[in-house]
Amino acid sequence: MKILFLSEDKELAKFLEEDSNTLVKTIEKIDEEFVLKNKIDFIVSYGYRYILPYEVLRHFSGRAINLHISLLPYNRGADPNFWSFVDNTPKGVSIHYMDTGLDTGKVITQKKINFDASKESFATSYNTLQVEIRKLFKSCWQDIKTSESANNSNGQTIVNKGTYHRAADKEKYMHLLKDGWDTNIAYFLNRIKNIQI
Length: 197
What we know:
The structure is a single chain. By secondary structure, this protein is of the alpha/beta class. About 6% of the residues have low confidence.
């Protein structure tokens, strides 16, 4: 199968290639002409910064998935790990079908993950989520690629539910990350509780 891999993740790229797939890799913005010219069969997105337009997705019903490091429908959009702590929402990882919204397609599978904020930094929790999303993807890839997908999915559509953030939303908090992303989460949460932003 020819897969458009919208990611820079080397581990999952290797996994898909070892599964006898040919990958077309890019993190650049793509359009309908690109997918038709490259004769793409399936799309896997992980950390891709653009929303795919209808003109692209209409060719991939049930064959375009996104890996997202939040427990959807919570923390759609940018910086999901950061916002899961700031907003005190459930944490985890999700794989969902892509639609023209931002992390709004039907959920295929997900895993809830618990963290002890006193023992974690934003960097360590982010790394845990990366490990868990890769494991989840590898464990369900065979089912995803052979299923009729969206038509048979029991997943829920997540439009207008949960939470959403843009990249710019976190800017007002950045000065409180004393050690950058290595800042202890409990320390940070205590600071934002005591400081009016």
